[in-house]
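Meet the record:
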Amino acid sequence: MNSILSFKIAIQTFKDNLKTTIIIMGLFGIMAAVYSGMFPSFKDMLDQMAASGGLDPFSSFFGMAALEMNTYVGFLYLEMYQIFIIIILAIVIGFIAASIVSKEIELKTIDLIMSNPISRKQIVFEKFIGLLPMVLIINFVTMIAIMITTSAIGESLDFNNLFLTHLVLIPYLMAILSIGILISVIYDEKMKCSIIMIGFVVAMYIYQTIGQMISSFEFVKYFSLTYYTNLYNVLKLGKVNIEGVIVLCAVTIVTLIIAMIYFEHKDIKI
């Protein structure tokens, strides 16, 4: 019982990724400050584009939010959240998660981990728990950077909606984590796992874009995790897609359970 409650593997996983967490936290914090701070420089140009209908073509790719890119919320959503959070941060998180077990097998250190008096299922679960602090730290440091920069440039932004936006991001990033771990227990080569995960995140974005652009293929957007976040409505209106959050939580739980069961019965060559 003591070994079950000690979470030694989770703590070690957090420590092993602490330096990576700090680096990514710094990069995304700086990026958030830079992109939110750039809005005043682009505002006049974006106002002219909006007046002349120059933003209309972007609505096919980014939805109705593109038509409000000349507002601070629209600019922040498209430049920061839609690209750097939903895609790039998801790729980074997924890349790390997709190698979290496979690297142990590839480096022949899995036997040391399995020498602990815990089940294989708990190993997978603790790996997931050990990566959660990284997600939370990066997520909320990015939020704080946006808050500070917004106040510094004098733009208007509802900080309650901003906080809610980053809360909604957690189920999305948790789903990315669980899928990455599932891939990590299926394949033994960490680079192969990471490449597959990158392809998965990019494919999700493509599915959502196709679903928005082509009405006859609208159904494909339901296969994309990004569809269930809808951060623009949260950031602008404080309106959370509860059904989407439930779907993302369900994906996390189901995927993690599948990963635990698969790893329990996996033939590991040591």
About this structure: DSSP finds 13 helices and no strands in the chain. Residues 2-29+81-265 form one domain.
